[in-house]
Each structure stands twice: as structure tokens, then as C-alpha cells.
Design a protein that fits this description.
Elements (H helix, E strand, L loop, with lengths): L3 H45 L11 H11 E6 L22 E7 L5 E11 L4 E9 L5 E8 L13 H5 L17 E2 L14 E2 L6 H34 L1
Parallel strand pairs: 6-7
Antiparallel strand pairs: 1-2, 2-3, 3-4, 4-5
The structure holds flavin mononucleotide (FMN).
């Protein structure tokens, strides 16, 4: 028969050893976890600019190679001015004074898509993603939602292909060039829905998640629009001069 003191000492020793093992494992695995998160973010950016297919598997190396080869970046301030000598990897996606924008370039170095982070409250969680625009800075090239805690089957449908495909080809500007953004509707769009080019089908049972996305998507478009306006005016001036 063991004494109470022995049992307590034994339990304390086992607890301390397990704590040390767990803490060591967490510390050792942290760099690998962080690297995987960064690779997943890069994969989402590539998906938003339509460089990778939704239903195909990609090795980590392929993602990193493709990203390094095809994507570059700028960081702009809230007025849309490029901050020199700074790349998007050096700033956090949720910073308000330094806005990271990833650029997809073709073989001649011309920018064919602009991709930037979007994030905000859904219903239960903070939803994070990326939105990419074509070089006309109006047409949606693609969108991804890579991190959220919405209910699977309801709000969780936002990261499914059927939902994100809805956004492709939609326009963020009206015919006057004013920013109107993209709105997730309640239910399906009808043939006679007005302004369909700025709207996408809603998810049944997830109106509140959609409402949250509508709000932060517009906010993010407004945050990045000063830079896009500068670029649109530059192209316009080049065309008429
Ligand atoms: C367990 C549970 C999970 C829910 N998850 C979500 C969700 O992720 N997103 C959402 O907008 N609403 C969610 N709701 C709310 C309801 O789906 C929604 O308010 C209601 O059914 C209205 O349907 P509608 O969105 O089609 O208008 C949830 C409700 C329950 C009970």
C-alpha cells in the first residue's frame, strides 16, 4: 500500500514531466506551424488570382515556387501612395496604415491582377480572405475566405467553390466609375435582379454571415480604392495624352 505522500509526489512528477513535454513540443512545432500558415495564405492569394485550380492538389514547394515566380507586391499608405522599399510580406494583413497589395505579373512584367487582404466580422467569427481584381481595377478576378469560424453547412459555405465562383467577373464600379462593391444577396439572384453585375447569390441559412461580409468587403474596397484610383487615373491620362 502506497502512502498519500508517495501518491501526491508521483502525480506531481508525472504532471511536471507531461507539462515540460507539451511545452517543448509546442515550442518546437511553432516555426513549422507558422510556415504552414504562410504557405496556406500564399495558396489563397494564388487561388484568388486564378493561378491555381480549386480541385487540384499542390505540393508546398510548387506553391512557394509559383508564388516567388509570379507574384510581387507593393505596400501603400491610406492615401494610396506607395511606401518605398517595403514588400507585402513585411506587413500584417490587418494593418491600417500600411496596406499590402500583391501583384500578378505576366512574362513582360505587366500587372494582370491586384490582390489584397479582406477581413472582418461574420456572424460568429472574424472572417479572413483575399480579393483579386483584374488589371481594369473593376472586374473581380477571384476571392477566397481562408480563415473563419462560421457554422459548417451554413456560414461555413463561404469558403466553398460554388460560393466563391459567384464573385468571378462581378464589377466593383458602377457605370460612372463610382465604387459600389459587391453585395451578397438574400437567396438566389433572379433573372430580373437589377444591378446583377454587383451582386452574388446568398447562402440559405447564412444571411448574417453574408451581411457581415458585405460590410467589411465594402470597407476594405474603400481602404484600397485610393491606390486603385491613382492607377486608374494614370492609365486614363496615358490614354488621352
Ligand atoms: C446552430 C446554428 C448555427 C448558425 N450558424 C449560422 C451561420 O454560420 N451564419 C449565419 O448567417 N446564420 C447562422 N445561424 C442563424 C440562422 O441560420 C438564421 O438566422 C436563420 O435560419 C435565418 O435563415 P436565413 O439566413 O436563410 O434568413 C445559425 C443558427 C443556428 C441555430
Amino acid at each position: 500500500m502506497y502512502s498519500n505522500g508517495y501518491i501526491l509526489r508521483f502525480a506531481a512528477t508525472v504532471t511536471i514531466i507531461c507539462s515540460i513535454l507539451l511545452a517543448s513540443a509546442a515550442t518546437l512545432l511553432k516555426p513549422a506551424q507558422e510556415e504552414n500558415i504562410q504557405t496556406d495564405i500564399k495558396k489563397n492569394i494564388l487561388r484568388a488570382v486564378q493561378l491555381i485550380e480549386p480541385d487540384q492538389k499542390y505540393a508546398k514547394k510548387d506553391i512557394l515556387d509559383m508564388f516567388a515566380k509570379r507574384m510581387s507586391s507593393v505596400v501603400v499608405d491610406p492615401a494610396g501612395t506607395v511606401i518605398p522599399n517595403l514588400t507585402a510580406d513585411e506587413v500584417n494583413a490587418d494593418e491600417t496604415d500600411r496596406l499590402p497589395i500583391y501583384l500578378l505579373k505576366d512574362a513582360n512584367g505587366a500587372v494582370t491582377a491586384y490582390c489584397f487582404p479582406i477581413s472582418g466580422k461574420g456572424l460568429w467569427s472574424t472572417v479572413k480572405g483575399y480579393l483579386a481584381l483584374d488589371s481594369d481595377l473593376n472586374t473581380v478576378r477571384g476571392i477566397t475566405f481562408y480563415s473563419h469560424g462560421e457554422t459548417p453547412g451554413l456560414g461555413g459555405e463561404i469558403s466553398k467553390d460554388w460560393f466563391i465562383e459567384n464573385f468571378v467577373g462581378k464589377k466593383i464600379l458602377d457605370t460612372n466609375g463610382s465604387l459600389v462593391g459587391i453585395t451578397i444577396e438574400k437567396g438566389k439572384l433572379r433573372a430580373d435582379t437589377k444591378g446583377k453585375e454587383h451582386k452574388v447569390d446568398g447562402i440559405s441559412g447564412a444571411t448574417l454571415t453574408g451581411k457581415g461580409i458585405n460590410e467589411f468587403l465594402m470597407g476594405d474596397l474603400e481602404r484600397f480604392n485610393p491606390y486603385f484610383t491613382i492607377l486608374r487615373n494614370k492609365v486614363h491620362n496615358e490614354v488621352i495624352s
